[in-house]
Amino acid sequence: MGKRYDYQAIKQWVKRIYDAYGFSENDSAIIARSITATDLYGIESHGVQRLAMYDRKINAGDIKVDAVPEVICETPVSAVLDGHKGMGQLVAGKAMRLAIEKAEQSGVGIVSVRHSNHYGMAGYYAKMASDKGMVGISATNSNPFLIPTYATQPFLGSNPLAFSMPAQPHSFLFDAATTVVSLGKIEVYAKRGKTVPGAWAVDESNEISKDAKKLRKNLSAAPKIGGMLPVGGKGEKNGGYKGFGNALIVEILTSILSQGHLSADLGSGTVKGISHFFTAIDLHLFGDPGEISESLSVMLERIRNLPAETGEKIYIHGDKEAAAFEDRLKNGILIDSETVKEMAEISEQLHIPYQMYL
Ligand SMILES: NC(=O)c1ccc[n+]([C@@H]2O[C@H](COP(=O)([O-])OP(=O)(O)OC[C@H]3O[C@@H](n4cnc5c(N)ncnc54)[C@H](O)[C@@H]3O)[C@@H](O)[C@H]2O)c1
Fold first, then answer.
1. What InterPro entries does this protein's entry cite (predicted)?
2. CB-ligand 1 contact for 317 (6 Å cutoff)
3. Does the CB atom of residue 242 touch ligand 1 within 6 A?
4. Do 72 and 10 share a structural domain?
C-alpha cells in the first residue's frame, strides 16, 4: 500500500535528485517544492509518483536541464512564452510569476506557453495567484488520452483546469482533469494493486475496463491503446460531450493560443512539447478585494451548511486538499512502496545516498 514519510526529508531527497541531474540549486529547490507540495495536498497521483516519468524524459533529452524559457511576444497584459523544453515546473512557475507581475501592474496578466513539459498539479500555479490575493487560473494540455464523444481513439489531453480565489478559511481551489480522472490516478491504483472504482477509461475494444494495470499499460503505449472518458462519461447519456467541450476549451487556451503542439500529436513520434495557460486577475478591478473575498467565503459556507445526505459531508473544492495539507505536514506524506523503489533506483543511478531520507 503506502507509508508515511517526513515531508521535509522527502523534499530534500527530491532536491538532491534534481541537483544531480544538473539543475541549479535554485531550480532544484523550486522543482522539489512544487512536486512535494502536491503530495502535501494529498494529490499522490502528481507528486513524487511522477519522478520516474520525469527521469525517463530527462534521460531521453525530452526535458532539457539547461533550457531557458523565452518571452516570444508581450503586451502589458499578456505574453507568449516558449519553454524550450524546460522542466514543466520551472517553465510554469516562471509563466505564472509573469502573469502575477502583469496583474500587479495592469490588473490582469495572461500568459500562454508552448514547448514546455508536464507541470504536475495545475492548482499549484493557480494558487500562486490566490496566495497574492488574486484570482488564478491554470491549465495544460497533455499527451492524448481523452476520447471525444463517439470517437474510438483519443485526441485531446486529460487537460486539467484549475481556478483559485482567496477565501476563508482557505482559498477556493478547483483543480481537476477534464477526463473523469487523471491518468496519474489510474497509475496509483495500478501501483496499489487495486481495480479502478468507476467508469474512467476504455480498453482496446472500446469497452469500459476497471483493470488498472491493463489501463496503465495501454495508456502508456505509443500510440495509446483505448483511452480515457471525458467528464460525463461515454456517449451522451450523462453529458460526456460537456467534459469533451471543457477539454477542447483547455486545448484552445493552451496549444492553439500559444501556437504549440496539439495533445493529439504528442506522446508518440518526434513531436514534443506541452502547452500551458495562466491568468492572474487583481480583484481591485472589481472593487474592494476584502469584501469580494468575504462574499465568496460566505457563499461557500452556505453551501457547506446545506442539508446533507445521511452520513455524508458537503465539501467545497479545495477543502479536501487543505485538510490533507495540514495532516501530511504533521504526519508525513503518503508514498506507495513501488514509488519509493523507483526513487531509490533513480538515486542509485545518480550515485545519491538516500537511506537517511527513509
Ligand atoms: N499535468 C497534467 O498533465 C495533469 C493532467 C491531469 C490532471 N492533473 C492534475 O491531477 C490532479 C488530480 O486531477 P483529477 O482530475 O484526478 O482530480 P479529482 O477527480 O480528484 O478532483 C479534484 C478536485 O475535486 C475536488 N473535490 C473532490 N471531492 C469533492 C467533493 N466531494 N465535493 C467538491 N469537490 C470535491 C477537489 O477539491 C479538487 O478540486 C490535479 O491536481 C490536476 O491538476 C495534471
1. Mal/L-sulf/L-lact_DH-like_ah, Mal/L-sulf/L-lact_DH-like_NADP, Mal/L-sulfo/L-lacto_DH-like_sf, Malate/L-lactate_DH-like
2. yes
3. no
4. no
Adjacent-strand bridge partners of 116: 274
- State which ligand 1 atom lies nearest to the alpha carbon of 138: 43
Half-sphere exposure (CA, 13 Å, Cβ side) for 338? 13
Based on the fold, state whether residues 47 and 113 are members of the same structural domain.
no
**Segment (H or E) for 279:** strand 274-282
Beta carbons of 136 and 164 less than 8 angstroms apart: yes
Tell me, what's the pLDDT at 269?
A: 82
SS3 221: coil
Residue type, 170: H
Q: Kindly give the number of the ligand 1 atom that is closest to the alpha carbon of 320.
A: 37
**C-alpha span between 43 and 322 (Å, rounded):** 11
Whether 117 lines ligand 1, by a CB cut-off of 6 Å, is no
Q: What is the 51 CA–ligand 1 centroid distance (Å)?
A: 19
Residues of the domain holding 101: 66-141+157-173+238-285
**Is 45 inside any structural domain?**
yes
Q: Residue 241: CB within 6 Å of ligand 1? A: no
> What element of type H or E holds 106?
helix 88-106
Q: Does the C-beta of 322 come closer than 6 Å to ligand 1?
A: no
Average pLDDT, the chain: 97
